[in-house]
Amino acid sequence: MAQTLLDVQGLQTHFHTDGGLVKAVDGVDLKIEAGGILGLVGESGSGKSVTGLTIMRLLGTKRARVAGGRVLFKGRDLLTLSDREVQALRGSEIGMVFQGALTGLDPSFRVGSQMIEVIRRHQGVSKIEAHRLALESLDLVGMPDPERKLRSYSHELSGGQRQRVLIAMALSGKPDLLIADEPTTALDATVQKQIVDLLIDINRTLGTAILMVTHDFGVVARMCRTVAVMRHGRVVEQGTVNDVLTNPQHVYTESLMKAVPRLHLTDEERSVPRSERRLFELRPAVPPEAATATTPGKETVHAGK
Ligand SMILES: Nc1ncnc2c1ncn2[C@@H]1O[C@H](COP(=O)(O)OP(=O)(O)OP(=O)(O)O)[C@@H](O)[C@H]1O
Q1: How many helices (H) and strands (E) does the chain have?
Q2: Distance 277 CA to ligand 1 centre (A)
Q3: Is the Cβ atom of 50 under 6 angstroms away from ligand 1?
Q4: Which of 92, 106, 196, 256 would bridge with 173, disulfide CB 3.0–4.6 Å?
């Protein structure tokens, strides 16, 4: 049985706002095994991003407080590490692609200099070595003509290419875990599929575990082995993708599943009337027998139907 890589236990993150206390994350348990892919799914505001940011210790506001819980990564609680230790871990052992980061590349600097700066900051390598690593990781994410891309400005790249740059940056330290927060949002459907396929490929070839934060069950069905469904800061259901998709235990999960974009239909499947499509649209990309549960079966943790 594969080893647990990330074990989040009873995580609580609160914001002290002028309007009162917001319990953005309210007792979340998650587990990802080495090389696994966990989908963290839920509607906007359910607490997915805050969960990812808390794991990475990147909440970035004094109004946020981790009110409880543990984030065990390879057995060490990230919440108790010093800032320096966490900084060393970021980029080298855990990489992250942020939500909305497509606009995060600075238009006034060449892609290469931004990549080199990030790589040097995380890995403390020379400029020449950082350049080599930047090229290597652009190659890894299937970027055509990587040398030229390093000399380009972000506006000269397509949305999909910019996302590949960001994924390349996150992977340059060869992390064991990649936290990808809505990495396909704002991309058109074809490019979304390419990015999802790239992440599947990275997981298979490098064995990088992925925490895939998404509101999209289609993405979960295509790439994840296990899934946790969040609502109002809590995990209402979690289990193997196969179990959750074929037999959701929570009405909220069912409602999310109904809003699945048509990401991964074959031509044959597309020819079937929409009303009869639901099951195979949601079929997991990973066959059930290959999907190892990293979470205890199916459980309704906090709320009933
Ligand atoms: N800096 C902040 N200050 C106060 N409240 C915040 C802050 N960041 C997030 N929140 C609140 O925490 C809750 C969870 O937000 P979060 O961004 O994690 O949701 P999400 O599920 O990722 O949604 P989305 O997909 O829209 O990003 C929301 O109610 C949000 O308003």
Answers
A1: 12, 10
A2: 33
A3: yes
A4: 92
Give the pair of three-digit tokens for residue 2.
């594969």
Ligand 1 atom with minimal separation from the 181 CA: 22
| pLDDT above 80 for 110 | yes
Strands 37-41 and 20-33 turn out to be unpaired
Nearest CA to 255 among 215, 208, 197, 212? 215
CB neighbours (10 Å) of residue 251? 12
Q: Does residue 177 have its Cβ closer than 6 Å to ligand 1?
A: no
Q: Does residue 41's CB lie within 6 angstroms of at least one atom of ligand 1?
A: no
The model's pTM: 0.85
Taking the C-alpha atoms of residue 23 and residue 8, their distance in angstroms, rounded to an integer, is 17
Say how far apart CA 223 and CA 180 lie, in whole Å: 12
CB 69 less than 6 A from any atom of ligand 1: no
Residues with Cβ within 8 Å of 166's Cβ and at least 6 positions away in sequence, in order, are: 97, 98, 101, 102, 104, 105, 183
